[in-house]
Amino acid sequence: MKQIVLFILGCATAAACHTITPNSQSGTISSTDSSKNQIAVADTSLSGTWYLKPALPSDTITGRFPKISFTLTAQTFTGFTGCNSMAGSFKKDGSDLVFGKNIISTKMACIGYNERAFLENLLKTNNYSIEEGILLLKSDNVILSTWSRTMDTSKIRKM
Fold first, then answer.
1. Which element (helix H / strand E) includes 135?
2. Which segments of 29-159 does DSSP mark as H helices, in order?
3. E-state strands within 17-126
4. What CATH number corresponds to the domain at position 149?
5. Which of 55, 97, 133, 144 is least buried, going by the fewest C-beta atoms within 10 A?
């Protein structure tokens, strides 16, 4: 307990304490150092939550956005298909990214939404890139889906 108190006191007076916060507007992460002004760093980490950038009106027919959250240390993901919750594993090596065939999901029916195509695209993924804060899931050089740290609610189809 004494060590924790000393760390907190030392952190309050030293310049070595950092806070990292996501900037949802620009897709950057800001690092705040107690002795420096905020520094914007490009968001190039796969880790965290990403929202689908809809390509077709049917992508948001349920009125909700597909999302995916990556946990790099465990190489697992959770998310939402647009209809059901999902979870599974993935393997990442550099820019290579492969989703495990063990994707599990809840089984709610959503009329007009092709969840099977969504899941098949995840399983086709074999690499990714992050360009200007946008996650591109790809099969070789073909972009399968694009994802952002924020959701564009103007794209939700009103039912």
1. strand 134-139
2. 115-124
3. 18-23, 28-33, 39-42, 48-52, 67-71, 76-80, 85-93, 96-99, 104-105
4. 2.40.128.270
5. 55
How much is the pTM? 0.67
92 φ, ψ (degrees, to nearest 5): -125, 130
Structural domain span for residue 88: 48-155
The per-residue pLDDT for range 33-47, each reduced to its tens digit, is: 333 333 334 456 999
SS3 90: strand
**Statement to judge: residues 13 and 86 lie in one domain:** no
* Tens-place pLDDT, residues 25-84: 333 333 333 333 333 344 569 999 999 998 766 666 667 789 999 999 999 999 999 999
Q: Note whether 52 and 75 are same-domain residues.
A: yes
Residue 143 to residue 67: CA distance in whole angstroms: 17
Place of tokens 């007076």: 13
Answer positive or negative: Cα dihedral of 123, 125, 126, 129: negative
52 backbone φψ class: left, alpha, beta (φ>0; ψ -120 to 50): beta
